[in-house]
C-alpha cells in the first residue's frame, strides 16, 4: 500500500513530506488520550550532502497549549543524505485533546559544517468524531 503524503515543505532543495494518521487503538478518549502516528520522508534534492543533527517541534493542542520538543536526530538517528537520497521514519504524538497540530524544523549541517534550517510543514492532528 502506497502511503499518501498529505503535507510538504521545501527548503533549499530539501523536501520534507508528512503523512499523519489517527490511531484509535492507541487512544482512550474517555481518559483524555488521543494518539497519532506520522510518517516523514526527507528528500535531498539539493546538490550538497547534508546530515540531520537536531529537530525542533511545536505541538499545539485544542486548548492552545504549546509544547516545544527539541532533540538530537530523529528516532535515534542522524541520517546522512547525499544528493538524490531520502530518509524515512515513523514516530507518534499523544495529545490530551481530540485535535491539534504540529510543525517545526530540522537543523542539518552541510559538508563544510554550515547549518541549514529545513522547515517541517504544518500538519493538523484530528481525531474522527465519536458518538458521545
Automatic annotation (TrEMBL):
Entry-linked Gene3D superfamilies: ApaG domain
Ranges annotated as spanning the membrane: none
ApaG domain mapped to chain residues: 8-132
Pfam families per the UniProt record, alphabetical: DUF525 (PF04379)
SUPFAM superfamilies with a match to the protein in the record: ApaG-like (SSF110069)
InterPro entries per record: ApaG-like (IPR050718), ApaG_domain (IPR007474), ApaG_sf (IPR036767)
Protein name in UniProt: Co2+/Mg2+ efflux protein ApaG
